[in-house]
Design brief:
- The chain is α/β, with parallel strands linked by helices.
- The chain contains six helices and seven strands.
- The protein has one domain.
- Strands 1, 2, 3, 4, 5, 6 and 7 form a seven-stranded mixed sheet that branches.
- Helix 2 crosses helix 5.
- This is Lipoprotein.
């Protein structure tokens, strides 16, 4: 973790100065290449700023985040490395691109712990990759919109796992919303990669039984809770000197890792 933070500080300094089925998960399969240009998502969800081209092999979308203030980039070679103070960020995020590779296996099995890469039931049956892409995209944009550091960056996010709860788990035992994604930060002017790829696990307790019913009555659906959680995760990752640390959630979390 400390090594990754050292890369972050050094990289940004340079930027300133110049649930039991037998499905087999495929999250270890190679990802498609991230897009080098702005692309739009496939039919089935809306982006804040849809663009022209589409990539059929992945649910992909990029949102350019509007900022009222554009911070000038320092030109001095001895401007010094940036540091991250708690609650602050050295970056402002220009755009967020989220990719959900089509190689990820979707499970529709109504079991306690289905063995797929994507488990999502709160939207109607349809393009689960696209549905997951929109949830993650909305969360990430919300989470980074308030950041206003001196370095303009683009975030590229590749989802490798998105396990919400099946109907059976939702109305009985509960479980874990198990979400994993890779994060790359690039200089939005030069396109240079500023940090090593970081794999982030962002697990969240999934309510079950009466707790789930009570939560839904308050408007706290799975989608609402996951969106709020991921927005907080990305904000912590970009403002905390140690980055985001996944919570320890006990037995069900361990089962999700098998």
């Amino acid at each position: 973790m400390k090594t990754m933070r050292m890369f972050l500080v050094a990289g940004l300094g340079l930027a300133v100065t110049a649930c039991t089925a037998v499905d087999v998960p495929t999250r270890n399969a190679p990802f498609e290449s991230l897009p080098n240009s702005v692309v739009s998502a496939p039919a089935g969800y809306d982006l804040i700023q849809p663009q022209a081209a589409a990539r059929p092999q992945a649910a992909t979308g990029q949102v350019v985040i509007p900022h009222e203030v554009t911070v000038a980039r320092a030109a001095s070679a001895d401007a010094g490395a940036l540091t991250i103070a708690p609650g602050q960020s050295p970056v402002r995020v220009n755009s967020v691109t989220v990719v959900v590779p089509r190689s990820l296996k979707v499970s529709e099995r109504n079991s306690y712990l289905p063995r797929g890469d994507i488990v999502w039931r709160e939207d109607p049956i349809g393009d689960r990759h696209a549905q997951v892409q929109k949830i993650v995209q909305d969360a990430m944009v919300r989470g980074v919109s308030a950041l206003n550091g001196p370095v303009s960056v683009d975030l590229e996010i590749v989802v490798s796992r998105f396990h919400a709860l099946t109907e059976k788990a939702r109305y009985t035992t509960g479980g874990i919303h198990a979400i994993t994604f890779d994060l790359v930060m690039k200089d939005s002017v030069t396109g240079a990669q500023l940090t090593p790829t970081r794999t982030i696990r962002a697990d969240l307790e999934g309510f079950g039984g009466q707790q789930a019913i009570n939560a839904e009555a308050r408007g706290q659906t799975q989608k609402v809770r996951i969106t709020d959680h991921l927005a907080w995760v990305i904000q912590q990752e970009l403002t905390d000197p140690e980055g985001y640390e996944n919570a320890s959630l006990g037995f069900y979390q361990l089962l999700n890792q098998i």
